[in-house]
Amino acid sequence: MSKAHDERRERFCGLLVKFRKDAGLSQEVVAERLNHRQAYISKCETGMRQMSFFEFLEMAEAVGYDPCDFIEELNSSRSLTLPIRKKEAQFAKNKKAKKT
After folding, report:
1. Residue 61 CB: number of other CB atoms within 10 A?
2. I need a surface site. Which of 16, 63, 82, 92 has the fewest CB within 10 A?
3. 28-66 per-position pLDDT tens digit
4. Closest alpha carbon to 20 in 47, 49, 43, 41
5. Can you tell me the distance from the alpha carbon of 95 to that of 92, in angstroms, rounded to the nearest whole number?
6. What pLDDT digit, counting tens, does each position of 15-31 carry?
7. Exposed / middle / buried, residue 66 (Cβ in 10 Å: 0-12, 13-18, 19+)
8. Which DSSP state fits 5?
9. What is the reported pTM?
10. What would be the CATH architecture of the domain defined by 3-99?
11. Who's near 65: CB < 8 A, 6+ residues apart?
12. What does the pLDDT read at residue 90?
């Protein structure tokens, strides 16, 4: 995969989180609406699971956003990153600080 593809995928996952949180919904609530487990939502939001186009549309409906707005923001955003990457960076920083 290209770097551009990876960056777009990270922005996609970051937007899944943003749109869900903007709607004031937890992963558990969205999972219940989709008849899935919370782990499914987490894996989609962290990029551990690739969503099909139809799953993306179902997620949009469950959260209450227009898929076209999502895609428009995806194409215009450049700074959103995967939540898991932020956690990994913080973990590495904490680990390094403990060694010194």
Report:
1. 13
2. 92
3. 999 999 999 999 999 999 999 999 999 999 999 999 999
4. 41
5. 5
6. 999 999 999 999 999 99
7. exposed
8. H
9. 0.72
10. Orthogonal Bundle (1.10)
11. 19, 23
12. 61
